[in-house]
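Task: sequence design from structure.
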């Protein structure tokens, strides 16, 4: 068979193209060129804080959409999307920009090998998670605060509620998109973070501290059915309690948030504010659900929540002897009961305790949980005495005072006699006054004695002789 010259030319061209196809590199494959973004299972909390400013200057709006991560190195510009994550929860997924720094730490890039302050922890485990479950760093964050939740990401309200359909804080899957290709809403895989080019690849995960067992690829969930181990408040012996979810507690105003720890597994909180006019309308009010009596008052301070507790919570306590204003350091008593004093309640009007968002600091959490009224047995009588007698018009001004270290003085009886040895007669009975005018004297002298009774019913004994007489009167 003979080929024409044109046929030989065509065959040679085909052969040349075939050889070139074998020698030239394959077309770029984006999935081969760029690995999938590292993805980890992380405990997420709701950002909230509407009206506050994020780390990049954004003012948080209702139903906003962004996240906070605990490292300044991945903060997007205001309104920008230089750093984004894909968050997936129960089959729903959304891509969100990083606009805030937190929770807890600010230098914990746990998604990469060169993670910042905590190189002893495995990649993919937030320091807050290690502190919460394993006691890393004494259970505290970089600022020394007791870590109350294992969260490694905060999610703004619109993404939390609307995009992801989350009803409460929970575990989510997070892909860190600046480190690799977006795996998409259904293709998330778990990979260790990439190793920086200037560092050798580790042969194994970084060595964990002795008290932290090396985790599997995905950090384990809490051992119980709920994602957050509840604290276990111990109610004081004999106490009568009113929790924030029970009758006897009322709330009013705006800005209320909840967290899943405290008495009965939950409590309420609001951001603190030094502006009294803005904060005073947010009020929690407890009333005593028990018989009148003498009680030591205590408030439980839960250890969890999106913000650290205030150091200057202001309780207003209405009791039988008046109104007490008590400032309590909720942060110092987190996970325990803060004492608010001992008072007589319920014998004079309604007993109540009020707490508002008004505090001595801004941007902390004022926590509203259970109050405990612990009965106190008062068996000691109060003590009263005449303190002064002074001349006033054609008679005398008589003054007295009483003290009681538990239930407080409820009333006084005052008696008078003509000096030097007249019979005692009652001048004032069961009065709460501490002075009165006596007269006219008509040129005679008189002696006085006083006794007190407290709110527990203890009554002082009369003394046999006078406390003071008009012979001692000041001019």
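Answer:
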């Amino acid at each position: 068979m003979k080929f024409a010259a044109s046929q030989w030319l065509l065959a040679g061209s085909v052969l040349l193209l075939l050889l070139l196809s074998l020698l030239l590199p394959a077309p770029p494959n984006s999935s081969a060129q760029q690995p999938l973004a590292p993805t980890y299972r992380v405990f997420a909390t709701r950002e909230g804080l509407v009206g506050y400013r994020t780390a990049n200057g954004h003012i948080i709006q209702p139903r906003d959409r962004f996240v906070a991560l605990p490292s300044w190195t991945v903060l997007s510009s205001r309104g920008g999307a230089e750093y984004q994550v894909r968050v997936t929860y129960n089959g729903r997924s959304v891509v969100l920009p990083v606009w805030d720094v937190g929770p807890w730490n600010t230098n914990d890039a746990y998604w990469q090998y060169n993670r910042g302050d905590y190189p002893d922890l495995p990649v993919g485990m937030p320091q807050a998670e290690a502190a919460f479950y394993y006691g890393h760093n004494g259970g505290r964050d970089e600022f020394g605060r007791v870590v109350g939740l294992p969260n490694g990401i905060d999610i703004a309200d619109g993404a939390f509620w609307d995009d992801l359909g989350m009803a409460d804080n929970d575990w989510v899957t997070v892909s860190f998109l600046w480190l690799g290709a977006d795996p998409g809403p259904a293709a998330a895989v778990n990979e260790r973070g990439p190793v920086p080019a200037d560092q050798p690849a580790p042969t194994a995960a970084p060595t964990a501290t002795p008290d932290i067992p090396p985790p599997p690829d995905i950090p384990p969930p809490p051992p119980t059915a709920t994602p957050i181990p509840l604290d276990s408040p111990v109610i004081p012996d004999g106490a009568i309690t009113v929790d924030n979810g029970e009758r006897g507690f009322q709330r009013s105003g705006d800005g209320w948030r909840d967290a899943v720890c405290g008495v009965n597994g939950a409590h309420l909180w609001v951001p603190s504010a030094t502006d009294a006019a803005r904060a005073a309308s947010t009020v929690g009010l407890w009333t005593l659900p028990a018989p009148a009596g003498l009680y030591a008052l205590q408030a439980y301070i839960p250890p969890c929540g999106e913000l650290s507790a205030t150091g200057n919570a202001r309780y207003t306590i209405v009791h039988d002897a008046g109104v007490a204003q008590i400032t309590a350091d909720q942060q110092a008593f987190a996970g325990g009961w803060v004492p608010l004093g001992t008072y007589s309640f319920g014998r004079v009007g309604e007993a109540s305790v009020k707490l508002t968002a008004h505090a001595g600091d801004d941007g902390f959490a004022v926590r509203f949980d259970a109050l405990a009224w612990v009965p106190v047995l008062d068996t000691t009588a109060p003590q009263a005495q005449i303190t002064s007698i002074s001349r006033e018009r054609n008679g005398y001004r008589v003054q007295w005072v009483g003290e009681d270290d538990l239930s407080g003085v409820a009333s006084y009886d005052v008696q008078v006699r003509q000096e030097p040895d007249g019979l005692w007669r009652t001048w004032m009975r069961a009065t709460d006054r501490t002075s009165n005018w006596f007269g006219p004297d008509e040129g005679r002298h008189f002696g006085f004695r006083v006794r007190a009774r407290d709110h527990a019913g203890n009554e002082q004994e009369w003394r046999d002789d006078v406390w003071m007489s008009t012979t001692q009167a000041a001019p």
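The chain has three domains: 33-179, 240-375, 383-472.
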